[in-house]
Amino acid sequence: MLIMSITLARNILEYPPNKLKLWPCLRRLLPADAKRPPMKATGPHPRPRQDLVTAACSACRETESQALNRKHHDLQARATALEELVELLRNLPYQDAQGVLQRIRSKTDIGTILNHVKAGDLLLQMAILPETRFRYEFPYRSEMPEDYVPNNPYLDSLIYEGASLYSTDGFPGRSKHTNTSSVANLGSDQYQSLYLRPFHAGQVVDPRLSNVKISSWTTVCEDDVLMRDLLGGFLRCEYHFTAIFQKDLFLEDMAEQREDFCSSLLVNIILGYSCVCYPQFSNRAEYWNPHTLLYRFMAEAKRLWELEATKSRITTIQAGVLFNVFCNLCGLDEVGQAYRIQAITLAHKLRLFNRTRDGKSERIRREVKTNQEPSPHQIIADAKKYLQTLVRVYYLRHGFEAMDLFIVIPLILAGSDCIDAINEQTPSPKLETLRSTLILVAKGLFNQRRNHYLAEALFRVIRGRMRHT
């Protein structure tokens, strides 16, 4: 070992001093008190004897002043931590302060206590559900028009109470049709959450949809994950409006590779329709663009329609109805009419309209007893008020960005009524209400135009009918 140390020291000493400084780790390996044995001359000019280096150079050793400075900083940091701890004990609630005192008595480190109080209990934070009761704000006037409040049953329901920031307790003449105490006691929070969250914040959870292999039904796309997301978006946004097929039977046959209530034609038209419901597609409204997935799904569906248009199958009838609706939202009403007529023809062949019902109808009609029949003018006025109320309540909770073909219908009706009602003789308060509704309608159509072309066309119609003030 001594011979190896001497050899290593001899090799190091051959380096110049400036390079030797780059090897502090090797210099520490040399023993500080090692005595070098006498060297014998092996040649005419023996090398002079050099002392061994010390264990650590001056730069590596901590001086007394540096040690005092380090201790001073440590004491200063500890004093700062103690000051923070005392400040926390002053400001924390009583129960939280008691918890901190218990940690101190259990000899927990001060830094650990401060980190715990500042960062909080991470497990508790993860257990807290985020706030999902998001509310939109009206674009023109933030309050609900006073004309809509009296005798309006829609404003006395959980839908409005959950969606609105504004209380209607101060308005006279609130509707007595709905018992607010029974509305408040609808049940658990699980049922009330359906009224307190926007529909586009939800997701369709179905085991059959999670495991189905949709790529076996279409040649357009092989990404099953993407197509499951597309189908889930359609079931969330548009299925309630175009429920021409039964969801459970459709998913069961798709998973089991049966063709009773599922076919490649029906799958492709549904996936094409689903593309307008997928917000990740920025060009989802461009049905004419051949580079979009929407165009390719629809092209495949049209090809299969030409092969199966004359076959009397329930899936072909369902596909024809979806073709008609999709053409309508693209502004191609005349093209969609041909699909609708052919679907009705196939339905007659299957005798779907020939069902006879014996006995009384299962639907029970309620008789509403009133002391006085309202006039037709009052019925129309109330209907318009209720329609515009529902448009506003819909916007407060859901907004207008998510795909919803159904909302376009009340939007265009409310917008046309407002434009027809605005004239030179309109009173100022009524004019402000009409303007606020009209601007809200324009905003809804403007947002929906990102999803389909029909909203774009209707937005241009409403904007063209607006007069400059």
Helix content: 55-70%
Average pLDDT level: 76
SS field, number of helical segments: 21
- Would you identify the regions where 5 or more consecutive residues have pLDDT less than 50? 19-30, 165-187, 359-370
The total of beta strands comes to 0
Question: Rough shape?
Answer: extended
The proportion of residues in beta strands is: under 5%
Structural class: mainly alpha
Main sheet: strands, sense, barrel:
none
Summarize this entry quickly:
This protein has 469 residues and is mainly α. It has helices at residues 2-13, 17-20, 24-29, 64-91, 94-105, 110-119, 122-127, 158-163, 180-184, 189-196, 207-211, 224-237, 247-256, 264-274, 293-308, 314-329, 333-349, 376-398, 405-421, 428-448, 453-465. It is extended, with a radius of gyration of 39 Å.
How would you sum up this structure, described in words?
- With 469 residues, this protein is mostly helical.
- The protein is 55% helix and 0% strand.
- It contains 21 helices and no strands.
- The longest helix has 28 residues, at 64-91.
- The protein is extended and about 100 Å long.
- The termini are far apart.
- The relative contact order is 0.07.
Main attributes?
469 residues; mainly alpha; 0% strand; extended
Task: Give the helix/strand layout.
Blueprint: H1 2-13, H2 17-20, H3 24-29, H4 64-91, H5 94-105, H6 110-119, H7 122-127, H8 158-163, H9 180-184, H10 189-196, H11 207-211, H12 224-237, H13 247-256, H14 264-274, H15 293-308, H16 314-329, H17 333-349, H18 376-398, H19 405-421, H20 428-448, H21 453-465
Helix pairs in contact: 4-5, 4-6, 12-14, 14-15, 14-16, 16-17, 18-19, 18-20, 19-20, 19-21, 20-21
